Amino acid sequence: MALIEIRDLAKSFGNVKAVDDISLDIESGEFITLLGPSGSGKTTVLRMIAGFEDPDAGSIKLNGEDITHLPPFDRDVNTVFQDYALFPHMSVQENVEYGLRTRKVPKAERAKQALEAIASVKLEETVNRLPHQLSGGQRQRIALARALVLRPRVLLLDEPLGALDRQLREEMQVELKKIQRDAGITFVFVTHDQEEAMRMSDRIVVFNSGRIEQVGTPEQVYEEPRTNFVAGFLGTANIFSVDVAQKFLGATTTVSIRPERIRLQAPETKIDKSETSVKGTVQEAAFVGANTIYILETDFGVKLTVRKTNTELLGQDNSFVAGDQVMAVWRDSHVAQIPV
Ligand code: ATP
């Protein structure tokens, strides 16, 4: 039995169908991410699991118990919001102790558990400070400690890293994942950042317009997208419509090829039997540090994006420039068929 069972869940605001009949199982101990563009319904699903929003239809079970219409405090879940929502007039320790105090945990035990939780996010030196005396990243970690100290079965996190700058965000991604693994708590994480989702999650749920497009491991949703939307939303994809794919590649569905799976070589050079090639002209070659991104106009009328890793210094490898005639080559096994 899954820890959380969501069945046929729906929620509208006026005539906007924010969540349109979704079903999902979340396993105990997993790090699952709800990923999708702005307005796709991720937060509304999270808020229904938390109990802040009442569904129009469907059900949510936690550990076998129907919690669909229970008030938030009667559910064994906790939420960490993007704006942290720390109490400004309370010290770090008091903030972390707050939930234990409302549960009437005795003072000494409260302090012990709070200090442990603060230590788990490595902020022991800040216990007596007020929230405004912390950096954004530190506030975020305290918000996490405050939720973890209650040892919920499930922690819901709504874009918790959204306000952090890029470097801190990447550090926190690693830390959050570690904290989750160590605490063994189920994390349901909301983000619109696909790289963040892939980096942290055991499984990703891709949302679009209130519906689930695909559920899978990061590798599955990236390598085997089931819809055009998923192929285009996770990373960059060269998508050939079924007509083009049929005509030039002999495929029977729409297909997608990732830019990093295509290499460029001089025209009329040798390729392997298991590979396909197409001729084209380089329209643009952009050096972006670790990679060079090429845009090709191909002979079969579609543009291709090709990504080459810059393993050599510029000019010391066989790089191409705009205007060059080239051959784009890929292994047939790297072509993903998109069924829908
Ligand atoms: P974001 O990444 O921008 O937070 P999201 O995927 O989390 O987006 P939701 O916040 O779940 O999306 O919103 C889904 C849809 O429901 C949007 O069209 C939104 O405008 C609408 N919506 C959400 N909450 C309300 C509300 N309280 N009242 C009216 N409409 C709402």
Account of the protein in words:
By secondary structure, this protein is α+β, with helices and mostly antiparallel strands. It is built from 9 helices and 18 strands. The chain has helices at 42-50, 92-102, 107-120, 136-148, 166-183, 194-200, 218-223, 228-233, 242-249, and strands at residues 4-13, 16-26, 31-35, 57-62, 65-66, 77-80, 154-158, 186-191, 203-208, 211-216, 238-240, 254-257, 263-265, 275-287, 291-298, 303-309, 325-331, 336-338. Helix 2 (92-102) packs across helix 3 (107-120). The model has no long low-confidence stretch (mean pLDDT 92). The protein binds adenosine-5'-triphosphate (ATP). Adenosine-5'-triphosphate (ATP) binds at residues 13, 16, 18, 36, 38-44, 192. Adenosine-5'-triphosphate is lined by residues 13, 16, 18, 36, 38-44, 192.
